[in-house]
Amino acid sequence: MALRIGDDAPNFQVETTEGKIDFHEWLGDSWGVLYSHPADYTPVCTTELGRTAQLGDEFASRNTKVLAVSVDDLESHQGWIKDINETQNCEVNFPIIADPDRVVATAYDMIHPNASATATVRSVFFIGPDKKIKASITYPASTGRNFAEILRVIDSLQLTANFSVATPADWVQGQDVVITPAVKDEEIPGKFPKGHTVIKPYLRMTPQPDK
């Protein structure tokens, strides 16, 4: 059954390129991104894992841990990492799960039989410190992920978890945000001292409150 926003993120104990981990224990109080790869030594995945490594400081600054999963074994992963580091000018320093029995892929519904009976789709799960699914994005195997969007989603999730706001279309860090309908007009000055703009009674904008 597909995981939905608000569901508990299934826990698992697995072997990874960084040793054996218990997912929930490894995540601790951090946010997490769990994402899948159809197989080792595939071209698009090579660029994605390289990009993840290049963005290590960006994820760390957001208190976010990244965990990749591929259905191949550890020996294959280790050889592939050498290729990734060489071709993408990076140093892969985050865990890649060995999932030859499809335990994680199945728990997170990463295999879509109408696309492929064996290969995972490109799923991305955003997981909060409370171990619940906060968002997910699924691409076909042929489409590489947009990591600017992945970072943008993390920024939005973290902001909206702490303030009564939502982020509008194409929002990025530093731009104005939407005041949620649950906030009454008379509450706005106390909650948003930077001021606000009423475009319509249901569309009220305010500067990003944590900037």
Automatic annotation (TrEMBL):
Q: What residue stretches are annotated with the Thioredoxin domain?
A: 3-159
Keyword Oxidoreductase present in the record's keywords: the answer is yes
**What are the record keywords, sorted?**
Antioxidant, Oxidoreductase, Peroxidase, Redox-active center
What InterPro entries does the record tag this protein with? AhpC/TSA, Peroxiredoxin_AhpC-typ, Peroxiredoxin_C, PRX_1cys, Thioredoxin-like_sf, Thioredoxin_domain
What is stated as this protein's family in its record?
Answer: Belongs to the peroxiredoxin family. Prx6 subfamily.
One Gene Ontology cellular component: cytosol
One Pfam family this chain carries?
A: AhpC-TSA
Top-rank taxon? Bacteria
The molecular function terms of the Gene Ontology recorded here are: peroxiredoxin activity
Q: Mind telling me what this protein is named?
A: Alkyl hydroperoxide reductase subunit AhpC
PROSITE patterns of this UniProt entry?
THIOREDOXIN_2 (PS51352)
Q: Name one GO biological process term.
A: cell redox homeostasis
> Oxidoreductase among the record's keywords?
yes
Q: Where is the active site?
A: C45 (cysteine sulfenic acid (-soh) intermediate)
